[in-house]
Amino acid sequence: MINIREITPAEGAVLSRMSDSVNWNNSPAECTLITRCSNMRGFFLEVDGQIAGSAGMVTYEPQSLVFINLVIVLPEFRRKGYATMMIEHILKLTGNYRTKKLHATPDGSKVYAPLGFKPCRGISFFASDDPHLPEIEGVDIRPMQEADLAEAIKRDAECFGFSRHNLLTFNYQQNPNLALTTGDAQAHIFGRRWKKYRQMTALVSSDLNAAMALAAHASELDKSQPQSIITYDTQQEFQAYLQSGGFVKVREMLDMELGENTPEPPEQYRSIYGGDMG
Fold it and tell me: 103 Cβ partners below 8 Å, 6+ apart?
């Protein structure tokens, strides 16, 4: 018997272990957020009472965007159509939303294309065991303070198109030591971490030099883990800078959409959040 049910807050660690099984990087706290946040929901697909897969969604009002995430099927349950079932379940729940969006590997895109999802733009996942990004002179970088958070959230919303205050407030509470801003508080970068990587994330800067300086400083904060950063492929100059400092492209992904197309990401949106959060 196949059943799709909502994930409870007590099952955040279960979802995190599923993320580990596909080499992703979602912490138990991050997975629990998906079950507690007012605009997020997660689902398990069960086969005869055994958890076989997961999927989640983040909604942005008013009925505008659904970001589908954490689509995972455990190895022993693959090639049975379960990923499609979970996506169809979410599409049924969100039929009145104008755009449905997700990130997919090239292989994963073959699951989503028959459902109507179309590739819109390329995304690259970069990683390094020992980054050494060239220093950028003339840009003052400092730790982000709690007083800076509201402005950073506002700046992020201007890029993403919707406010992600729940997600970014959570991120800052979890990893305040990984968040940086420029001295004039006109650009910022956040950080997220779990077992596999420490990720530089949600980097917003209208100035390329400031973006590079933020990345360089962030990469030096803690070298106890491999580091990663995810960018849209429109960020050619920024990607070249990352590669000059030891980052290597390890995965290619596709931004896929169903329904109304969203605008192209603005130039100042230098790195995406990751964790399938946009």
Answer: 69, 123, 253, 254, 255, 256, 276
Cis peptide before 62 (omega within 30 of 0): yes
88 & 142 share domain: no
Are 265 and 233 in contact, with CB atoms under 8 Å apart?
no
Do residues 132 and 78 both lie within one domain?
A: no
Tens-binned pLDDT, residue by residue, of the chain (278 aa)? 999 999 999 999 999 999 988 888 899 999 999 999 999 999 999 999 999 999 999 999 888 999 999 999 999 999 999 999 999 999 999 999 999 999 999 988 999 999 999 999 999 999 999 999 999 999 999 999 999 999 999 999 999 989 999 999 999 999 999 999 999 999 999 999 988 899 999 999 999 999 999 999 999 999 899 999 999 999 999 999 999 999 999 999 999 999 999 999 999 999 999 867 76
Report H helices in the chain.
Answer: 12-21, 28-36, 82-93, 106-112, 149-160, 165-174, 208-219, 236-244
Whether the predicted model's global pTM rises above the 0.85 cut: yes
The structural domain count of the chain equals: 2
- Is 118 part of a structural domain of the chain? no
Spatial contact of 205 and 158, defined as CB atoms under 8 Å apart: no
Spatial distance between the Cα atoms of 179 and 149, rounded to a whole number of angstroms: 10
